[in-house]
């Protein structure tokens, strides 16, 4: 009898186990589509991430702002060569651009400068950077940092003391929501009028003013407390500020039912995620973890008594921020939070100067070393270096390339003192970091696109070859777009820059322009039959903005003396060295025309100069015939394959501008220097040209050329020319004894400090006449994505 009962009980257990296994298998199958759809979505949505290292953070109008751009792959954080152009802007508090530039990128790096005009107003500004491809996504993906600009040549309006009580309080339940009678961790943040965290303490009260929990901030106005709402009513928080003032705010309302998640460290190598489903049956939940658009963990558990527990090996998680999402049985995301794993992919940079103190106009030599870890030998890396004077207004930027890539770029809002979260580890740092993650964690990943398998329509293509100039053709009468219309874009000059395109169904034109630097005229022409069609050249800069406010612009009264010193230095530098500050590198570009080597090239000064273009062509250009059809003269190019002239007109260019037969034959040949002829059929994109005849004037400026009235001519800024950084040299006693004043605050800037195969480099420059403490800041990365920063100080004094 006992044996029978034992067998019976065992059979029941086996059947129960099999049933449970079948439920779990079915649950796993039900969720199996999420990882695959996630992978497909990420494959279609490759991310780029930019970081900009500026030489300083505080500037005067009339100074130069120098910067270096780093572009990395959003998944691997390695330098990426996808986009060849970065867009850099300085925006005012109304998000209106005051400075804009297009910067050439090569192997994920680029550099440039802004001369801050004396017309600019004093205030805090936002420097932001993005690529054309990044314009397809939320502006929160753009790089942003605040910079302060003061115009000492304009009267500074005294800043009134901020006596307002603009304190902000926010509560963030872990996982997203509070649920009735379910214990939750609630993070909070209190910020003051300047946008910085405020230390505080507080209590949570019921509707009857009964205290249910007390709390206190840990760091930067952030903290957390455990809380179990008894019902769905709103709970009130009374918060006491350092000055004794009390402010009131409300916690989010609790739901009658729903899910709550809690994350806890489980030993040194694991984290435990507990999911509680209030009033939910025993149904499965799915945990999905991804980082940098790469799946890390995917597991299914069934709720037992309303609770499911997941144990995650930390070794399965990527460095940096991981997104942990819980899905219910209907494959709906119901809880989400972030987790931060300290990254090990850090470039170790060390640098020392050849002395701790210097006199005026003395040589400074900085020895730089880069390595991937302390246990490894040196590694080559590309760095940017700024050396500038520290004072009451100029400080060291706390946000480095390392902290930005791994932490702040993944969080919403302003992160105060990001370097703190990479300081010496300990329990307090771990708790403060988790508070930060709960407060600033954001949902920039939209699961709707993944679950609904929505294929996004990308408006902006990656500029993987050159700058894309976008135009739109519309009918003036109906304002409708005109599809499949032929168009041509030219940039007049000795260098031939000619591009063609056809409008798409939205009437848009995309001209992929290469090696266009500086400001010049662009000419856009179409085959529109009359003037009822207009061509608009679209703004290449993004018109999407974040709602991140700039810090309040306030200058301390004691800063006036420092401002006066810096203003004198700026004016002296611009007076004595203006020419040296405006030297630019001429980039090495391919000057071969798009059609390659022509069949024949004529230098017209080598021949008899005729007074009409028809005579020139008839007398000594046998490859081009002038024929009359329908009462009009036409050019025809000889086709050596068919041993006859092409039946259609060739492409006729004058200084890179497309012209028709009539305009060309009326043009004065005495203004033409060269003529090139391509006799074969040439295919350029969707266009087929039956021969090419290219005329070039002496200066490449289309002198006196009269174009059709439908042509659009406007000034257009191409890629920024690279400005040379000026730093005087005092190698000899005679140079050091120069009576020209040297009041530089920025002693040195280089966007290209390259360490060798052993990770070593040396940089040299000279001090100025300004005494004080100087800081040298190095930032950069190597080819495999190890990023890092380092700074040290030295003194310049009388010797």
UniProtKB/TrEMBL annotation:
The lineage of its organism: Bacteria, Pseudomonadati, Bacteroidota, Chitinophagia, Chitinophagales. This is Macroglobulin domain-containing protein. It comes from the Bacteria. Residues 1-27 form the signal peptide. Keywords: Signal.
């Amino acid at each position: 009898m006992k044996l029978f009962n034992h067998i019976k009980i065992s059979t029941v257990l086996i059947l129960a186990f099999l049933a449970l296994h079948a439920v779990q298998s079915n649950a796993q199958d039900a969720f199996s589509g999420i990882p695959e759809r996630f992978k497909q979505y990420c494959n279609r949505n490759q991310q780029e991430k930019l970081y900009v290292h500026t030489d300083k953070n505080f500037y005067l109008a009339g100074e130069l702002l120098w910067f270096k751009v780093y572009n990395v792959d959003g998944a691997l954080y390695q330098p990426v060569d996808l986009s060849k152009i970065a867009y850099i802007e300085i925006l005012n508090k109304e998000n209106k651009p005051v400075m804009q530039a297009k910067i050439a990128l090569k192997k994920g790096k680029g550099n440039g400068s802004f001369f801050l005009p004396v017309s600019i107003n004093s205030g805090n500004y936002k420097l932001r950077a993005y690529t054309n491809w990044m314009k397809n996504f939320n502006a929160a993906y753009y790089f942003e940092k605040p910079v302060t600009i003061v115009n000492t040549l304009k009267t500074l309006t005294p800043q009134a003391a901020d006596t307002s009580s603009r304190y902000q309080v926010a509560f963030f339940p872990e996982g997203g929501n509070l649920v009735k009678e379910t214990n939750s961790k609630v993070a909070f943040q209190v910020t003051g009028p300047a946008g910085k965290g405020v230390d505080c303490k507080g209590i949570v009260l019921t509707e009857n003013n009964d205290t249910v929990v007390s709390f206190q901030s840990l760091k930067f106005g952030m903290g957390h407390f455990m809380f179990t709402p008894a019902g769905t009513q709103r709970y009130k928080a009374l918060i006491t500020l350092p000055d004794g003032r009390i402010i009131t705010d409300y916690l989010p309302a609790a739901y009658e039912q729903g899910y709550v998640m809690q994350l806890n460290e489980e030993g040194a190598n694991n984290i435990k995620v507990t999911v509680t489903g209030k009033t939910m049956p025993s149904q499965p939940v799915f945990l999905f973890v991804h980082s940098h658009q790469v799946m890390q963990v995917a597991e299914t558990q069934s709720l037992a008594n309303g609770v499911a527990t997941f144990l995650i090996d930390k070794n399965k998680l990527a460095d940096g921020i991981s997104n942990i999402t819980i899905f219910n049985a209907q494959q709906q995301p119901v809880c989400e939070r972030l987790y931060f794993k300290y990254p090990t992919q850090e470039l170790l940079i060390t640098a020392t100067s050849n002395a701790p103190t210097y006199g005026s106009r003395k040589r400074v030599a900085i020895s730089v070393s880069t390595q991937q870890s302390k246990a490894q030998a040196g590694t080559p890396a590309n760095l940017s270096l700024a050396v500038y004077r520290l004072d009451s207004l100029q400080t060291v930027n706390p946000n480095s390339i390392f902290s930005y890539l791994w932490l702040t770029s993944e969080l919403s809002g302003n992160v105060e003192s990001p370097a703190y979260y990479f300081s010496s580890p300990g329990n307090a740092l771990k708790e403060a970091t988790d508070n930060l993650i709960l407060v600033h964690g954001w949902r920039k990943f939209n699961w709707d696109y993944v679950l609904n398998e929505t294929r996004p329509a990308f408006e902006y293509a990656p500029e993987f070859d050159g700058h894309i100039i976008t135009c739109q053709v519309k009918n003036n009468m109906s304002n409708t777009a005109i599809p499949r219309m032929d168009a041509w874009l030219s940039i007049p000059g000795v260098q031939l820059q000619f591009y063609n395109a056809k409008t798409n169904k939205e009437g848009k034109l995309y001209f992929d322009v290469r090696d266009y630097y500086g400001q010049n005229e662009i000419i856009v022409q179409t085959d529109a039959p009359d003037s009822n069609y207009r061509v608009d050249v679209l703004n290449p800069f993004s018109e999407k903005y974040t709602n991140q406010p700039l810090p309040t612009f306030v200058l301390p009264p004691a800063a006036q003396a420092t401002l006066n010193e810096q203003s004198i230095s700026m004016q002296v530098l611009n007076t004595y060295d203006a020419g040296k500050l405006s030297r630019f590198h001429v980039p090495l570009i391919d000057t071969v025309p798009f059609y390659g080597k022509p069949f024949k090239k004529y230098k017209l000064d080598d021949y008899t100069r005729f007074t009409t273009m028809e005579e020139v062509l008839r007398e000594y250009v046998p490859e081009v015939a002038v024929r009359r059809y329908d009462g009009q003269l036409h050019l025809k190019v000889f086709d050596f394959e068919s041993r006859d002239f092409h039946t259609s007109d060739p492409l006729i260019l004058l200084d890179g501008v497309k012209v028709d037969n009539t305009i060309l034959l009326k043009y004065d040949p005495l203004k033409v220097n060269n003529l090139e002829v391509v006799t074969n059929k040439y295919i350029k994109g969707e266009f087929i040209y039956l021969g090419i005849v290219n005329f070039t004037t002496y200066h490449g400026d289309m002198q006196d050329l009269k174009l059709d009235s439908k042509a659009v001519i406007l000034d257009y800024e191409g890629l920024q020319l690279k400005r040379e950084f000026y730093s005087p040299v005092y190698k000899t006693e005679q140079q050091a004894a120069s009576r020209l004043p040297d009041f530089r605050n920025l002693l040195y800037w280089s966007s290209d400090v390259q360490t060798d195969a052993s990770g070593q480099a040396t940089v040299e420059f000279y001090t100025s006449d300004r005494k004080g403490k100087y800081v040298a800041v190095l930032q950069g990365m190597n080819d495999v994505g190890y990023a890092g920063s380092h700074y040290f100080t030295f003194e310049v004094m009388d010797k």
